[in-house]
Fold this sequence. Notes:
The chain has 11 helices and 12 strands.
Amino acid sequence: MIRLQFRESVVLSVAVLAGLILLLVYSGPATGPNGTPAESLVLYCAAGLQPPVAEIVTSYESANTVRFETQFGGSGTLLSEIRVAGGDLFVAADKQYLLTAREMKLVGEVLPIATQTPVIVVTKGNPKQIHSPNDLLRSDVRLSLGDPKMAAIGKIVQGLLKKDALWDRLWQKAVIHRETVNQVANDVKLTAADAGIVWDATAVQYPDLEIVRVDQFERSKNEIAVGVLTTSKHPESALRFAQYLTAPENGLSVFRKYGYTVVEGGRERAEGSQRKDTSRPSVLPKSVTPKP
């Protein structure tokens, strides 16, 4: 009986201590670098854009009284979530999602970021000798594709391959259907698939993969953009971040570092004026201090 009471006392003490720790950690609102309460912004971002956007968000938070709740996923999936839950910002892998959101009265300001083009990715050395979308139909090729209902890459490529019902044939043949472009690239990297179709800017983030460019895709340059949501509780703060994200010396320098062809003043500019197929640029831009 005494042992039982002692054990219960210990458990109770641990529970009280845990509660006190949680109270200390979570009591009061988050604060910015100058100690003032931080505004909280909900940012929806296409999964393929996670590396540059995550880096930009971290840099911005370190110098501003703003904290982000960031949700990554397929652009189509995120748009569905925005319709239900609202939020502050939407970074889409293709501008068309923002135009659709604007028609729904969900987006106000839209700012361009960069362009990207679909490519086929295979393992190094291209062992299956894949050079065109038709090669993906071969029986010895395992294919991973992004779902056009959820991922921008799937929707865009579906439109590009409508002729001769090539998309429908590829979709039926694919052994894996994915929600995001990153998942497609990972399937090829992990050899769960022999080939996949992803964005060129996504592909350069996977040095183990080889890029196959094809004429049908090269004519398609899809614009990445950010939109300020009409449901934002802090529209001025959301717009300031969108402007920071699209400023040449701030957000765009990070996108360029990751191999994206950025848009500056209506013109496209890639690192070294050329897109790189197999790796990130070796020289990184100088760090910049976020503007308050």
